[in-house]
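Now for a concrete sample entry.
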Amino acid sequence: MKKKYLLLALALILPLTFAGAHPMQRYAQSADEADARKRIANDFAEALLLAQEKSASTIDYDRAAKASINGMLRTLDPHSMYFDAKQWEEFQNDQRSRYYGIGSAIVQRNGKVYIWAPTEGTASYRAGIRYGDQIIAINGESTDGWSQSQVRNKLIGPDGTQVVVKVDRLGVGPLEFKLIRGAVPLPSLSNSFMLPGGIGYINLDRGFNTTTYDEVRRAIADLRQQGMTSLVFDLRLNHGGLVDQAWRVSNLFLFNGQKILSMRGRPVTFPNRDYTATNPAPDDYPVVVLISRETASAAEIVAGALQDHDRARLVGENSFGKGLVQNPFPLKDGSALILTTGHYYTPSGRLIQRDYSGRSFYDYYLKRGDKDAIQRTEEKKTDTGRTVYGGGGIDPDVVEKVRITPKELDMQRAWFEPVFEFVHVLAAGQIVGFPEYKVEKPADHHHRLLASEYQVSDKLMAAFKTFMTERKDLKADLSRIDRENDFLRRWIRYELVTAAYGTETAFQVLLETDNQVQKAIAEIPKARMMAEDARRTRAARNNE
């Protein structure tokens, strides 16, 4: 999903059972409703015509209509929204876990747009486009001065259409590729691999879409074959999605008959519904779930269900806090309204929705002004009697805040582009003495990174310093290189692994210093004890 729409769509729940306007909404208008419609139309038309006549600005009617709809929806709640036809099509593609294009992640560095990671099986991957190729023209039109967004919009398009992409490859020169756009997968699950000690890791960070359950189920099966005896399930950046998928993912861990969530709406139009587990024999290995301030909606359904049934130990920070349910209502012109139609509750009966009254739209979404300790008014119990709270997101069992210091943020800003430029040249084989780092084919996305791979040696750090000395245009502060040596080694390694194996494999480099993941690993023994307590509690209730 485009960044400009990410906040608007954050934590959106779209139950598959309601794919369009509900038939109960299509009833005859009463006289009062007809009168209200007429009055609203007249008021809007009068205001619009007056603005057209008196305003110094020219009226953009489409923009005015869209703004009026969004303004009306803001009076309801922060999650009801309007998508124009293009936005609605893009949103549906996200929900279908795909879009149409050439299949490459692109990045903007030093004012230029580069290929960062071709997606396996797509047109760009098959053609041999690789990390570091600078996109210099599309369909004969120079990209000089274009933003990353402008390049992306030219690369995506209808399935089966051709796009001609010209790139500049260091050491080779300009290359032209005639590519046929096709379906590019947008999987929910960006990573799954084994950590030491029989611990599996699954990173479900891209929302709950139509393929989420199948992705998680396959990942668990694959990890079990590799010897997984416990699991770290990372939901920290997951903004939510489809209720049906959240129910099915929860069902992988919970026993038949255990409640997963309850939905409550207007009885006439959207009848209340309970979702329960149907799995007769789920695996009962220890599970630790990572959550953050960005964990929202469908992701909170999963986290809340596993916490209420004592099936998993939660580590991280208080989640976003969205307990509202939305449904889509397509309009005649191809646009759509997304309206809040009810609330959902966790198995213990918690409503986790944060208070949004009296707050601006952006303050609510960005959680500005939220207190670290939210005043709780709703106290519930888990299956084994532990106290949990509603009214403001899900509290983790173990609080572990992200340890990103202002100094580290400053280092990221300072070295973001210089490190890319160094690795770009290094991967192209243009730095003498390091042939092992030359990348000559698209990334191997299935590679499992070894701890010994791509470690940054003193020799390579010396080459980095020399490179920065020669490249005055990068404006690097050479005095910082020795002081920030550890950070630079890690960042250079991350970029090298991205060039060789793609962003999915490179993510493993970042986890090595991720304090929340390390805390989750440390909590595995307690998660095992929790699973055993829950098993005994369930057995006792079954024998009653």
